Amino acid sequence: MTGDILLGGLFPIHFGISSKDENLAARPESTKCVRFNFRGFRWLQAMVFAIEEINNSSSLLPNITLGYRIFDTCNTVSKALEATLSFVAQNKIDSLNLDEFCNCTDHIPATIAVVGAAGSAVSTAVANLLSLFYIPQISYASSSRLLSNKNQYKSFMRTIPTDEHQATAMADVIEYFQWNWVIAVASDDDYGRPGIEKFEKEMEERDICIHLNELISQYFEDREIKALVDRIENSTAKVIVVFASGPDIEPLIKEMVRRNITDRIWLASEAWASSSLIAKPEYLDVVEGTIGFVLKAGNIPGFREFLQQVQPKRGSHNEFVREFWEETFNCYLEDSPRLQESENGSDSFRPLCTSEEDITSVETPYLDHTHLRISYNVYVAVYSIAHALQDILSCTPGHGLFANNSCADIKKMEAWQVLKQLRHLNYTNSMGEKVHFDENADMEANYTIINWHRSAEDGSVAFREVGYYHMHARRGAKLLIDNTKMMWNAYSSEVPFSNCSEDCEPGTRKGIIDSMPTCCFECTECSDGEYSDHKDASICTKCPNNSWSSGNHTFCFLKEIEFLAWSEPFGIALAICAVLGVLLTAFVMGVFVRFRNTPIVKASNRELSYVLLLSLICCFSSSLIFIGEPQDWTCRLRQPAFGISFVLCISCILVKTNRVLLVFEAKIPTSIHRKWWGLNLQFLLVFLCTFVQVMICVVWLYNAPPSSYRNHDIDEIIFITCNEGSVMALGFLIGYTCLLAAICFFFAFKSRKLPENFTEAKFITFCMLIFFIVWISFIPAYFSTYGKFVSAVEAIAILASSYGMLACIFFNKVYIILFKPCRNTIEEVRCSTAAHAFRVAAKATLKHSTTVRKKSNSIGSTASTPSSSISLKTNSNDCDSASGRHRPRVSFGSGTVMLSLSFEESRRSSLM
């Protein structure tokens, strides 16, 4: 249709061209387009409707008539380029300004803008040509992301969103349904390849695997289609993602219908999500449940009536209308070129059309006006051009977009000026929607997600809206799907399974399988101390330090906190032993205080005995600090308390033992010995020995003080223990104690036969032996135990050694004081001393006799000598309470010397 301003249109009125081998034996003829596209014809009608509506408007482009030149691309690049060359050639002739040489009454004005094309591959070829002449091109269905490159496609614009968002949306749907094993199929053109490339990147980011990645075309040979279907049929993936147009995917669908492969779920890109080629009842067994992405539907008032008014007589100038009529009613119009072909036998027989058929009486995709998506995009594209022209028409000089803010002349404008105006377009359409192009000349929109159902009424395909995809929403809120509306193949409402491996249950994680994709895995149970509380966990989460994993590793529970508590049986037993030790020691001290003036108490050095008993009370009490929850102050107190108490105790024993030894080894007591035996010096020695231990503790507490420590190393238990701060310091503390014990043991062993204090030195020897056995055993036990048992081991060692010292040193004395008072006398002490003196004299005599005998033997003497048998017999148990006398007897050889010693106790004398 002619007009003052001409718009171009490119629409796929046919799905393809007939394949023909060109041998170039004759002049090549134009290829024939086949398979009429009813939806494509409706898109054409939308452009015609929009132009007629604009021409009838009094507010938009008044007194200016828009015309159009519309071509059929046949969904191929070659046909589209033929039409584009026509647009370009006309613009080139106009630019030459040949009016003065040629007065053509039928002159056709230049095409200032082109609406189309549909397929991205076709639009890419057209855009390459139109961009050379800056002729604006507005596509209504080409969504390839490559077309957003303005450096290459300078004049390309579109009213459909780019596939950049669609690939992301499809990946989000797969992630939403928790699929990780899919098949990807793309058309082998500029639409499918970039779309599936972007889709692959999105899948990699989500750790989803593509099992097969295939290209397809409507021009594939049968063997190629069959080979592709073989690979799909043998794949374990159940979801097929397709970036292709309807004509490209149709051969694949046909072959799958022939093989009755019905266990696949299709994810359709916008190019075929509502294609009438695929949405056929005979294909529903295979494609039912398909999830498709379509554009938001628009409303075109009056378009339905316009579609119904189509008539071959009314549109005689439009050959597409005539063919549409013939294909709709399966007839031929008079003078139709297709009638002649039919007569030549190329087509089956059809009757003639009457041109009076009722278009509303037939089912055709042409009249499907309920969801106008691509048609609405065509409508918006035409109105965008019209508003750009209106901006040029209403431009005020000085406020224009061109040099020096000038305006273009609507009567002499060129295509590049329209392109400039379109890039700055911003208007509100009749539906109240704002229309503008972004920096890439794309138009933003959102996707509607549809699900293919089988209509209960007639078994046809019904597109049910089940969700939306909002491109510019925040991540996580972009996708919205109503699962209750979803219907999968075979009327199933359960989401199909399309994973390489079965889901890993909670408590397990996905383990890698060698030479397999990451989506193929084996389920491995979480390690102890780790858990997973959801399916398909990639890793097991480590439990917090205060928690441990349950038996099935699905959650963590708080660890039990353990320490040597007062309430547990072991703690109670240790506490009882410690308290009992304190009470026994206090009892012994009470006995010693009560009988402090008796010989046995005096002979035991009662002042040192009091200090020794007090230190033993401290030893027993220090074991109580090891019971209960360790705190910082208890950790810092217990080792010094134990160490200082034991050193004080052993120092007293050492001084007592050393005193007895010095007394009996001194041949003639001197003033020096008496000074050494003085009480003040004994206390000084005890103080000095103890002071060394105190300094060790001070240095320890200053440099590395012990502290409370929660040990999380044990699986299900948190042991609250003491971190000693420095093991070396603890070694010094125990080592110094053992050193004093060794010295004490040496002196006690050396004086074990002395009579002082009723063989006290022997008991001290046993006491030190017990001490060594306990603490030598303590070292390996301490380092081989853990948790609360460390405190228990040390408490046991303290109690055992404390009881050993208390029993060995004091129990015998208490027994004599309480139950054998006859032995607690001065005579008994003196008697034992005298016995020791005779024992020493006898040893000396025996030694002398032995020496004489050796000399006699050396000179051959035959004289008899007295027997070398010397015996000292004393009856220490023969206690005469009346006389209080003992009669030791000394025997030499065959004779017996009776030595009678009588001691009269002086009233004022006492044994020191």
TrEMBL record:
Residue segments, region Disordered: 855-887
Keyword Ribosomal protein in annotation: no
UniProt cross-references to Gene3D superfamilies, sorted A to Z: 3.40.50.2300, GPCR, family 3, nine cysteines domain
PANTHER family: CALCIUM-SENSING RECEPTOR-RELATED, EXTRACELLULAR CALCIUM-SENSING RECEPTOR
Protein's recorded name: Extracellular calcium-sensing receptor
Subcellular location: Cell membrane
GO biological process, one term: detection of calcium ion
